[in-house]
Amino acid sequence: MRTRLRRLDTTALVYIALVIVLIIAAILVSTTGRNLFSPGNIRDILTGMSVLGFVAIGQTLVILGASLDLSVPYVMSLASLIAAQTMDGRDGMVIPAVLLTVAITALIGLANGLFVTVLKVHGFVATLGVGLMLKGYLDTNYQGTEGEVPWSFQLFGASGIGPVPISTVVMLALAALVAFILVRTTFGHHLFAAGGNAEVARLSGVRERLPIIGAHIGSSVCAGFAGLLLASRLGVGSPTVGSQGTYDLLSIAAVVLGGTVLMGGRGSIWGTIGGVAIFAVLDNLMSVMQFNPFLKDVIRGLVIIVAVALYARRRIIARRIRFAQAPQGPNIATDNRAGSETPQTENLGERAAVTGEGSRS
């Protein structure tokens, strides 16, 4: 049984954990006389996934490149304000507002990427500095909500297909697009290479700066999408809507819970979506059970620590298998026809298990 679990990639383990969380949550919710899988409750869970999902998709990109993005909550707030002020309640300004928001957030991501790659500032420090500059701009120029979002754009955050919100469908479509880019394009391969070992990637002919810059642009644009969704739900832009949700830390937590390695080079978008789903189910459970709001953060922290500890232990076990000493005694098979000797020192099943663990999940 343990060998089978070791052969599973991290993404599969995340979804096994999600199923277990769903079963436990369903049992606990049933004690209150409610049904976890009722259409209304499913809609609440999926709605909770949407905003964090957008941010976590972008955060996955930068973490795969061995960086971080702590500017996302302020990018979200700025995006909501740009969109609401540009739309100003007019249906005809929806598309220009969205395009302007995407362009400005992309420029912020470009600045983050250049600071990291050209100035050699660590992503943690560079994006923290950019985030503080954005915070200063927001605090100086905005005292409260601004602008107005027309009803046609509010449908983005309010409508759905049955119990599935439109925003969740868009978020999953974006996740599929990014997953395709990571697996099937040169950019994705180079991002994995640069995140795994930038020096080796450079010596292999990879221009390691470009994928890191692209990852930061993608992260900021994804945060911009999250800001657009929040503006759609609120009907206005807010200078604090991103920071109040602590989406920087929550997105990193979801990415780590999804199995992406903080040091870069290994992970997957679908693992991140699984991590987002686990957080959404836990938040819904704690809301139904009326947990203390401060206790919610304690539980989130425990879940993250346990998950990372299990991933670390799993990798250690896999390494022990791979580098185990050869068994004592006669372990050399002699081929009389060829006159050669072939050492029989590695079990093929163990080799396959280790190879699976070392892949890109």
UniProtKB/TrEMBL annotation:
One of its GO terms (molecular function) is transmembrane transporter activity. Residues 331-361 are annotated as: Disordered. GO terms for cellular component: plasma membrane. Pfam families: BPD_transp_2 (PF02653). The keyword Transmembrane helix applies. It comes from the Bacteria. It is a multi-pass membrane protein. Keywords: Cell inner membrane, Cell membrane, Membrane, Transmembrane, Transmembrane helix, Transport. InterPro entries: ABC_transp_permease. Residues 331-347 have a biased composition (Polar residues). The chain crosses the membrane at residues 12-33, 45-64, 93-114, 158-183, 212-232, 244-262, 269-288, 294-312. It is found in: Cell membrane. The keyword Phosphoprotein does not apply. This is Autoinducer 2 import system permease protein LsrD. It comes from Brevibacterium epidermidis. The lineage of its organism: Bacteria, Bacillati, Actinomycetota, Actinomycetes, Micrococcales.
